[in-house]
Amino acid sequence: MSIRFRLVLAFMIAAGLGIFSLTRSLLEDLRPRYLEAMEESMVDTAAIMAADLSRDAAQSPGGALDTSALAATMRDARARHLSAKIYEMDKSSLGLRIYVTDAAGTVVYDSDEPGDVGKSYAGWRDVRLTLAGEYGARTTHLVPDDVRSAVLYVAAPIVSGGVIRGCLTVCKPADSVTLFIDVAKRKTIIGGILATALVALLGAAISFWITRPIERLTRYARDLKDGYRTPAPELGPGELRGLGLAFEDMREALEGRRYVEQYVQNLTHEMKSPLSAIRASAELLSEDLAQGMAPDARARFLRNIRVESERLRSLVDRLLQLSALENQKALREVSPIDLAALAGSVIDDFEPQLREKRLRVERRLDAEVAVRGERFLVRQALANILQNAIDFSSEGSAIDLAVHATPTGAMVEVADRGPGVPDFALAKVFERFYSLARPKSGMKGTGLGLTFVREVTALHGGEATLANRPEGGAVATLVLPERPPTFASSTRSAHAAPTRPPQ
Questions:
Q1: In 3-state terms, what secondary structure has residue 102?
Q2: What is the pLDDT of residues 261-311, one digit of tens each?
């Protein structure tokens, strides 16, 4: 289970439980709150009507209750056709019941149950408490355990001369607010669902924001494992950036240690052969062993010492160049490069060697093929692959050099007509110190030229390959982008890893 999924799941569970609890609490609280609001308005209604009867009682002999005016008002009100649009409810009739009792609790008026006049309501809570000078109210269910059958009763005292002469009770079915409660519940549920969806999206966004840098760091580690030349990812400020920097420092330390170990091993191996040859030639030329040696033999040993010494010097020089290039994290002097003109200049530099082997260069140079890069390094790379082609070309043959544009940059191809590269060596030719014997001399090179070429192309964000041609010989290809990458190269390895662009 991924970290992102765990974060989203945990966020959804926590938020879902919170929203569910809140929604449930609101739904359970809706009906009591609506009934409270309904009761509050009934208190006002009862007080106003009781005050009207109290005024009439004050004017009557002995404080008698006169409900004739109230009865006439209720009849007229019930006769009216109401047309009220209250949000989603259409109200067309009066939904209020009123009854009046005297000081003993006997009914003197009932708008809905005229047959109850004369009956005693003294046992009802609203009547009993009101006549006792307290707030009288009750809720009665016409059908037991059915909340929709509840009726609210709110009473107010009828007072005359400081004496309670009776009470007036206003009755209203609780079902009259059911529609409002149902609408409120529906809106509350919809709101809860929308809030849950919003929280889910927010949780996904937060998890993406948290895990994105971790995914970049993971991809970075995998690219390094697979040998790609990958830039350190942008992780932003905070702890993750510190983790990324620590990861990069660790990588460089481990890579540097492996680099030194491999360099020392390879250099030691490569220097053994020329040093052994020099030592053997020197011993043979020593005073004791050289007496009676033929002049041509002496010259041959001296020439061997010079050749092997030059090989050592070339090896050291190439190593210094390659080491400097491998420690270069980014291009330094980037400028426009006319590849056709640069290739022509490199060919001119090799003219003496070409004449010596009676080689000709067949040029196919497209005009206006330009890229941006470090001119010196690109020139050195072209010189290395041309030197390689000269070394492996048969005398009197031709070398094909082509420069042409591609949709994303440029391509340089240098093809010889020599023996080609053995199949077993194709995968190793770019490895450091790996070299094949030259056809004419049988000697090997330093094995650093093609490594240098691949490092240069990788630093420019391009690629270098070497393959055999169907018609014979080998072809070296350099692919360079129109513009080099803007990030610093970070991976240096023995096989000169290809570049993967930042993601």
A1: strand
A2: 555 555 554 555 566 666 666 666 665 455 666 777 767 767 767 766 766
What stretch of H or E contains 160?
strand 150-160
Residue 239 has a pLDDT of 60
Mean pLDDT, rounded, of the chain: 77
| DSSP structural state of residue 462 | -
Q: Name, in order, each residue with C-beta under 8 angstroms of 2's C-beta and a sequence gap of 6 or more.
A: 211
CB atoms within 10 A of CB 368: 8
Look at residue 127 and give its three-state secondary structure: helix
390: helix, coil or strand?
helix
Whether the full predicted model's pTM is greater than 0.85, yes or no, is: no
The secondary element (H helix, E strand) that includes residue 137 is: strand 137-141
The one-letter amino acid code at 154 reads V
Under 8 Å between Cβ of 472 and 420: yes
Q: What angle do CA 229, 232, 238 make, to 5 degrees?
A: 170
Tell me which residue has tokens 């030719």: 429
Q: How far, in Å, CA of 263 to CA of 10, rounded?
A: 50
Q: Count how many residues are written for the chain.
A: 503
pLDDT tens digits for range 211-268: 777 777 777 777 666 655 566 666 666 666 666 666 666 666 555 545 545 555 555 5
- Per DSSP, the three-state class of 463 is strand
Task: In whole angstroms, give the CA distance from residue 84 to residue 92.
Answer: 7
What is the gyration radius of the CA atoms in the chain, in angstroms? 51
- Residue 175 CA to residue 501 CA, distance in Å, equals 70
Q: Edge-to-edge, what's the strand order for the sheet holding 150-160?
A: 107-110, 97-102, 163-173, 150-160, 137-141
Residue 264 has phi, psi (to 5 degrees) of -60, -45
Cα distance between residue 353 and residue 266, in whole Å? 30
